[in-house]
Amino acid sequence: MSPPRLTFAGVVGGYGTAAVVREVSGQVAPGEVLCVLGRNGTGKTTLMKLLMGYLPCWQGSVQLDGTAIEALATPARHALGISYCPQERPVFDDLSVRDNLTLMRPDRDLAPFADYFARFPILARRLEQHAGTLSGGEKKLLSLTRGLAEGQPVILLDEPSEGVQWENILHMAALIEERKAAGTALIVVEQNLAFAERIADHYLVMDQGRTVLVGPRGEIDRARLLVHLQV
Ligand SMILES: Nc1ncnc2c1ncn2[C@@H]1O[C@H](COP(=O)(O)OP(=O)(O)O)[C@@H](O)[C@H]1O
Ligand SMILES: [Mg+2]
């Protein structure tokens, strides 16, 4: 087994003075998906923001390949190899689809996106339109494409399937499988259990900011998951 690529331990953080994430720990190895599950409002997005540096860790550690990164700002974490596709406002609405994809690519080359355009032809058709004209689900396709195609060793996806039709969710699963095969480590927050079951190697289930269940997919059956997901 490969050593973990991204490790977090005892992470605490939140907004103002209120802790939302309370001592959450986990890890993900190259070629694996850690799926973070839990009801709405339980702190999954807050955990992603703590891992990416959008919020400061009040306690705990975050390590990338054994190097402490919890004190680094977001751009430094990105530069070290972590990409992030946020749940809310996943794309730049005022930029074209093309500019959303090529913003970080000085050559402006679209060739790296050919596989993505084959699965999501809407993106190729709308290249020159403002991303703000896309539907919520289409923005998620654009965000995932941008995030996966960056080719970074670690990718954080916060509810990539939200508002996406099932056919395209299956394309997302296939693209994530390709990244896994290339050795990428992914942490994926999800509400869609059917999608999570397709891509996950490990689960981390949160409730009220704490870890309530963690382990390999094969050792956690659906009934145990549902206890923590149903309202
Ligand atoms: N910007 C914010 N300011 C204050 N509280 C917030 C903010 N964002 C989220 N929260 C609160 O933190 C808790 C967890 O939110 P969040 O991490 O978004 O949960 P999840 O992603 O699991 O739905 C919720 O109670 C939410 O109201
Ligand atoms: Mg969320």
What does this structure look like?
The strands form two sheets. This protein has a six-stranded mixed beta sheet with strand order 6-7-8-3-9-10, sandwiched between helices. It has a single domain, classed as 3-Layer(aba) Sandwich (Rossmann fold), CATH 3.40.50.300. The chain is globular. With 231 residues, the chain is α/β, with parallel strands linked by helices. Adenosine-5'-diphosphate binds next to helix 1.
What descriptive keywords fit this protein?
six-stranded mixed beta sheet; Rossmann fold; globular; binds adenosine-5'-diphosphate; 9 helices; alpha/beta; binds magnesium ion; four-stranded antiparallel beta sheet; 231 residues; 34% helix
Order of helices and strands: EEEHEEHEHHHHEHEHEEH
What is the overall shape?
Answer: globular
Can you summarize the main beta sheet?
6 strands, mixed
Q: How far apart are the termini?
A: 36 Å
Task: Count structural domains.
Answer: 1
The spatial strand order of the largest sheet comes to 6-7-8-3-9-10
Total E-strand runs: 10
CATH class: Alpha Beta
Q: Identify the bound ligands.
A: adenosine-5'-diphosphate, magnesium ion
From the coordinates shown, what is the CATH architecture?
Answer: 3-Layer(aba) Sandwich
Percentage of residues in strands: 25-35%
- Tally of helical segments: 9
CATH level-3 fold name: Rossmann fold
Helix content: 25-40%
Low-confidence sequence ranges: none
Estimated radius of gyration: 17 Å
Give the rounded overall mean pLDDT. Answer: 96
> What is the CATH superfamily?
P-loop containing nucleotide triphosphate hydrolases
Structural class, please?
Answer: alpha/beta
